[in-house]
Design goal:
The protein is α/β, with parallel strands linked by helices. The protein has 13 helices and 11 strands. 23% of the residues are buried.
Length: 337
């Protein structure tokens, strides 16, 4: 087909030029037709990769440009009998003004946001985005937690964050709760999601996919992750377990935070501010900068004071890490009395 197009365009150029200027310059028409056919094939490849709205804008601009070019050239060439001058004038005007119309039309076409132009194409693009293996499905808890926004800004999370509509609906339900605490958490979640959407480090994709036969949001998240081959981003321990049982990859922010905590070994000495009493008799409790709880034997009497303690053991639990310690020595204890 492409070969026939080149042959037809070349022959047409030859015969058109032969009728206008005669046999001697007919080869110019042959070369022009061949060149036009090659350019047409080149633009065909470019158009395949160009959005429909830009193609329509460019086509409309080209048509308007050609009409304007001929309207401007026609009155100027009424009083001339030189065919070469007339042909050159029409060719120059159509090329220059037609190109300007095409360029302006394509640029304006980028600004079009017409629904019928975005229909099937937009659906296919969204489908492609959802099928991307690097996508992470975000659950409600991790949005409300808020740390995800800071993690995104660091650039550690790549790809797309996929937010299902049923997660947004759960956030909205929490934000509209009569309980002031829940309402504050829901509003915080919506604010965090808006912050992530404005970030240039990640792309947020909102999907309408739902599973009417499944009631629980956690189960819907797992089903969606299995369907599109994505991982779940959460800090919910129960969702973490359910997803792993179903063979779905999970990124748990709590586990990430635990892994990033500084390593503390038995025998190390640190200075801790005793903030409150412990559960056992005589215990005091303090915290590291990352929020890790430090239990201090016989530290109750030093409430509100900073003491040097020696680490005796470190306990890792599902809820986090706990450090057990004792006063550095009796001399340190006496110095605070």
């Amino acid at each position: 087909m492409r070969g026939l197009l080149v042959l037809f365009a070349s022959a047409s150029g030859y015969f058109i030029m032969h009728q206008i200027v005669g046999y001697k310059l007919a080869y110019v028409g042959l070369a022009s037709g061949f060149l036009i056919a090659v350019l047409a094939l080149f633009f065909e490849e470019r158009v395949k990769k160009t959005p429909l709205r830009i193609v329509l804008g460019g086509a409309a601009g080209l048509i308007v440009g050609l009409i304007v070019a001929n309207l401007l050239t026609y009155p100027l060439m009424l009083n001339t009998s030189n065919r070469y001058l007339e042909l050159s004038a029409y060719l120059l005007a159509n090329c220059v003004i037609g190109y300007l119309g095409l360029s302006i039309g394509m640029k304006k076409g980028e600004e079009l946001e017409l629904g019928f132009l975005k229909g099937p194409g937009a659906d296919r693009q969204t489908e492609t985005k959802l099928q991307t293996p690097t996508g992470l499905i975000v659950d409600t808890s991790v949005i409300i937690d808020g740390r995800i926004a800071e993690v995104c800004e660091t650039g550690f999370i790549e790809g797309r964050l996929i937010v299902p509509q049923f997660v947004l609906q759960e956030l909205q339900y929490i934000a509209d709760s009569s309980d002031s605490m829940k309402r504050a958490r829901g509003k915080r979640g919506l604010d965090v999601l808006k912050q992530i959407q404005t970030s240039k480090k990640v792309e947020v994709v909102i999907t309408d996919r739902d599973f009417d036969n499944i009631r629980e949001v956690d189960s819907k998240l797992v089903a969606l992750a299995k369907e599109i081959g994505a991982k779940v981003l959460t800090n919910d321990a129960n969702l973490n377990k359910v997803a792993e049982l179903n063979g779905v990859g999970v990124l748990n922010l709590n586990k990430l935070a635990t892994a990033m905590k500084p390593v503390v070994l038995p025998g190390e000495v640190m200075n801790i501010l005793v903030l409150k009493e412990g559960k056992e008799h005589g215990q005091g409790v303090g915290y590291l900068e990352d929020g890790t709880m430090v239990v201090i034997d016989n530290g109750r009497e030093f409430l509100g004071k900073s003491v040097d303690v020696t680490i005796t053991s470190v306990l890792q639990t599902t809820g986090g890490r706990m450090i057990f310690s004792k006063l550095k020595d009796e001399l340190t204890r006496a110095a605070y009395q």
